[in-house]
């Protein structure tokens, strides 16, 4: 991946450390399963927070529409690879699958400013 040059910081701005952001778009939740989905998200947050390189993970509910989105912040690509190969990630995927009509779609971003 090509390295992106970060713009110089301006007065009062803190320098941004390298960080990977993953935006995960969830498919529709099966009818009657939203409470279980929210419980799964809280449980999986606890599990993922123990992983090396984990920074934060939040669940976003749209103002219009019904599909949730998650915002995952990690230190770098290696942190993502480690998380994705973990037992916690495998268990989380197995638990959430029956609650969804489809598969989550991740998009990766590198913080540049």
Characterization of this structure:
The chain is of the alpha+beta class. The protein has a single domain, classed as Alpha-Beta Plaits (2-Layer Sandwich), CATH 3.30.70.100. It has helices spanning 34-48, 77-84, 87-96; strands spanning 20-25, 54-60, 69-74, 105-110. The chain has a four-stranded antiparallel beta sheet with strand order 2-3-1-4, with helices on one face. β2 and β3 (69-74) form a beta hairpin. α1 (34-48) runs antiparallel to α3 (87-96). The protein is globular and about 40 Å long. The two termini are 17 Å apart. Residues 4-14 have low confidence and may be disordered.
Record keyword descriptors for this entry.
113 residues; alpha+beta; Alpha-Beta Plaits; four-stranded antiparallel β-sheet; 4 strands; 22% strand; globular
What fold name stands as the CATH topology?
Answer: Alpha-Beta Plaits
- The helix/strand class is alpha+beta
Average per-residue pLDDT, rounded, comes to 89
| Poorly predicted residue ranges | 4-14
Using only CA atoms, what is the Rg?
Answer: 16 Å
Strand order of the largest sheet: 2-3-1-4
Shape: globular
Question: Would you kindly provide a brief summary of this structure?
Answer:
The chain is an alpha+beta fold and 113 residues long. The chain has helices spanning 34-48, 77-84, 87-96, and strands at 20-25, 54-60, 69-74, 105-110.
